[in-house]
Amino acid sequence: MRILSGVQPSGKLHIGNYFGAIRQFVDLQHKGHGLYFIADLHALTTIRNADTMRELVHDVARNFLALGLDPVKATLFRQSDIAEVAELSWVLSTVTPMGLLERAHSYKDKTARGISPDHGLFAYPVLMAADILIYHSDVVPVGKDQKQHLEITRDIAVKFNTTYCPGFDPATGQGGVLKLPQPMIMDDTAVVPGIDGEKMSKSYSNTIDLFGPEKETRKRIMGIKTDSTPLESPKNPDTCNVFALLKLFAPPEELKEIRALYEKGGVGYGDFKRRLADHFFATFGPARQRYEELGNNEDYVNQVLKDGAARAREIAVRVTDDVRRAVGLR
Ligand code: ADP
Ligand code: TRP
């Protein structure tokens, strides 16, 4: 089974990203061949500074490796290292109805917010379809916000196959040059709250970053918003942001004990926050150390990306070849 997903190099990762997405990617590497790429071509629609782009791409690679992605088991690479993907994107664009793209939520949302759209933003789903189809991906794990992009990908694949592959059967999806991928919508029932109680998001400046400096991270944890229940009074764990975050870290037995302390009273929020900080550093300590080490080992990170690209290209070249033949470019 080939598992593929892409991550935009859009900034520092926080614990919401980890529990909501990255942890699943890392777990999935044991279930099949994982291909994970850093979507730098997609990021060109928002990042318009070359140094920033280079820095962010490198940082995402470091993040993944620090968090346990095994570059022997899984293939980690940069999207733009596979030039064929841009060619496939063009070929696919010639069978993509305009209406399909005009209906895309992400495009509509951005234009509704007053962002003046360029062609890259409009064509974004076609490039994403190329990313997926060029590796004959079986399963594509993504967040709920990407669900429509996967539907578009399947529609484009069906359109291509019906146009160019006489043996294609749309009912079974068999007999085409392009394989129809299955979406895997990652469970996001547990939205991780930020230090202000809203959804944790880098756009709200309420994050606890995975790899931030220790002192600042402790300060942010101690700054989590709580109510003004006095120390000696009983407290409600189910409306408390600190407890919601403790749930991500503490084992069930300990959580039971913490719940009892809340309900009994006599323990202040500061104590619960310190406990959360201890859990944070115990959980991410090894990853944080590895992240530091990788910072001094740029060559290693570059080598991982280079090896990853070579492996990914082997697949991409074969599929591109079939596509070229199917449309008559060879
Ligand atoms: P941000 O909101 O910080 O910009 P992204 O939109 O880049 O984060 O999200 C990247 C991934 O992390 C997505 O798969 C998303 O579902 C997940 N994610 C982001 N924030 C949270 C959160 N607070 N709780 C759970 N998952 C999250
Ligand atoms: N669009 C995705 C996001 O913003 C990133 C992405 C690009 C992707 N290409 C992909 C995800 C292919 C899965 C498969 O999160």
Describe the 3D structure.
Helices cover 54% and strands 7% of the residues. With 330 residues, it is mainly alpha-helical. The protein folds into two domains: 2-191 and 298-327, 3-Layer(aba) Sandwich (Rossmann fold); 211-292, Tyrosyl-Transfer RNA Synthetase. The strands form two sheets. A three-stranded parallel beta sheet has the order 1-2-3. α1 links the parallel β1 and β2. α3 crosses α12 and α4 (84-93) crosses α7 (119-133). It is elongated. The chain starts with a strand and ends with a helix. It binds adenosine-5'-diphosphate and tryptophan (TRP). Residues 4-6, 8, 39, 42, 128, 131-132, 140, 142, 146, 149 line the site of tryptophan (TRP).
What fold name goes in the CATH topology slot of the largest domain?
Rossmann fold
Q: Ions, cofactors, ligands: which are bound?
A: adenosine-5'-diphosphate, tryptophan
Q: Return the CATH architecture of the largest domain.
A: 3-Layer(aba) Sandwich
Mind telling me the CATH class of the largest domain? Alpha Beta
Coarse morphology = elongated
Spans of 5+ residues with little confidence (pLDDT < 50)? none
* Order of strands across the main sheet: 1-2-3
Distance between the termini: 29 Å
Mind telling me the C-alpha Rg? Answer: 23 Å
Helix fraction by DSSP (H/I, runs of at least 4): 40-55%
Question: What is the H/E string?
Answer: EHEHHEHHHHEHEHHHHH
Give the percentage of residues in beta strands.
5-15%
- Counting helices, strands and paired strands, the structural category is mainly alpha
Question: What's the β-strand tally?
Answer: 5
The largest sheet is: 3 strands, parallel
